[in-house]
Amino acid sequence: MTNYINMNRLNWNERTAIHAKSDFYNIDDFLAEKSSLSGLDKTELGDVAGLSMLHLQCHFGKDSLSWARMGAHVLGVDFSENAIALAKSLNERLGLDARFLCSDIYDVAKELQGELFDIVYTSYGVLCWLQDLTRWAELISTSLKPGGTFYMAELHPLTFMYEVEDNQLKSKYPYFDNKVRRYESSTTYTGDNDKLEHSVTYQWQHTLGEIVSALAGSGLKLEFLHEFPFTVYNMFPGLMFQDELGRWRMKENEHLPLLFSVKATKH
Ligand SMILES: C[S@@+](CC[C@H](N)C(=O)[O-])C[C@H]1O[C@@H](n2cnc3c(N)ncnc32)[C@H](O)[C@@H]1O
Fold first, then answer.
1. Which ligand 1 atom sits nearest the alpha carbon of residue 60?
2. pTM summary value
3. In terms of DSSP bridges, do strands 259-266 and 220-228 run parallel, antiparallel, or are they unpaired?
4. Ligand 1 binding pocket mutation candidate from 14, 57, 233 (most atoms within 8 A of CB)
5. CATH number for the domain whose boundaries are 4-266
């Protein structure tokens, strides 16, 4: 049987080096104080100074370290050894107090040994890598202190139905889909030409209803669910433009939802 997680981990380990030298992730600007956080996350989550934060699927830690710069005490988690090694070295270089843990998301609870957080945060390109949202939501709920906040900003599940073909948006995949999807791509989303040796990944589609219901079912109280017609990167090349705030919007189909955000509270 295919080991989806191992295949995905090999892919993410390989991507990390490409991302680290990409203009997309621009580590030099980041080291020179530029935050990697989107305005949306900062506005909607609000002040994090002095609060403890668990950052799920943190990649190589730019967002975790951006929150740490704003005074949060962050623990970033990701299953890619290479990403976590880079995150730790950036943390050291910046003299911040963030911690990083290499773990598959479904093993995080036992690694935490009961540690609780004021905030659980996750963002942009995370849910498609997870097969089981019930277990994901349970991890969030059991990692929060009473009164703690969960916040996520994520690519809208509707966007996973589409691909660009002949400079047009083509509907290629169903919105309702329980089957694992096998994708093959020799490059990554940063737009660099470097070829990936581990080019096959396995991903899952989750509808907005499934995502929100998993969170509600874990005992969290939903504060809001917002949807937006802009996103954080050029996800449909040739069909998008950047607005004055740097957000990517559709040239046509401008009412397509591209992002959503959720805030929820633990009681
Ligand atoms: C698109 S990235 C998140 C990106 C982040 N917003 C950023 O731009 O830095 C998705 C992350 O999920 C991680 N990931 C995928 N499957 C995982 C799993 N089963 N457990 C933990 N991390 C996982 C990958 O290693 C990758 O770093």
1. 9
2. 0.97
3. antiparallel
4. 57
5. 3.40.50.150
Distance 78 CA to ligand 1 centre (A): 6
Alpha carbon distance 174, 176 (integer Å) = 5
12 lines ligand 1 (CB under 6 A): yes
Query: What span, in angstroms and rounded, lies between the C-alpha atoms of 243 and 220?
Result: 34
Place of tokens 């690519």: 155
Domains in the chain: boundaries: 4-266
- Pocket perturbation via mutation, ligand 1, pick of 22, 56, 78, 259 by most ligand atoms within 8 A of CB: 78
67: closest CA among 100, 89, 111? 100
Q: How many residues does the chain have?
A: 267
The residue whose CA is least distant from atom 14 of ligand 1 is: 57
Q: What's the gap in Å between 117 CA and the centre of ligand 1?
A: 20
Each residue's pLDDT tens digit in the chain (267 positions)? 679 999 999 999 999 999 999 999 999 999 998 899 989 999 999 999 999 999 999 999 999 999 999 999 999 999 999 999 999 999 999 999 999 999 999 999 999 999 999 999 999 999 999 999 999 999 999 999 999 999 999 999 999 999 999 999 999 999 999 999 999 999 998 988 899 999 999 999 999 999 999 999 999 999 999 999 999 999 999 999 999 999 999 999 999 999 999 999 999
